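Quick start: what a row looks like.
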Amino acid sequence: MKDFILLFRQAANELNHLTDEEMKAVNKKWFDWISDIDAQGKLKDHGSRLEPAGKVLKPGGVVTDGPFVEIRERLGGFIVVSAEDLDEATTLAHGCPILEFNGSVEIRALLG
C-alpha cells in the first residue's frame, strides 16, 4: 500500500452563496464521503480544511499576501488515503463533494 494525498481545489467564491442549511448539507456530504473511505480502512489522515487567506514566500525573501484575488481556483484542504496504486486512489476520490461545486481533486503519491 502507498499513501496518496487528495488535494481539494475549487473556484474561489463557489460556496459563498449557500445558506446555512445548504452549507450543513454540504458538510454532511463531506462527512459521509470521508467516513466511507475510513470504513474501507483506506483513510490514513483526516487532513484539514485550509483558511482562504495566507502568505506567499518568494525567492529573495519577498513575502506577499495570498492567495490572490485574481486566482480562479484555491486549495481548500486535503486528506491522505492508502491505496494500492494511483488508479485505486483516483477511484477513492470519486464521489468527493467538491466535484458537485465545480471543484477538482488532485491525487498525488506521497514519497518517502
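That is the whole record. DSSP finds two helices and six strands in the chain. The two ends are 13 Å apart (CA to CA).
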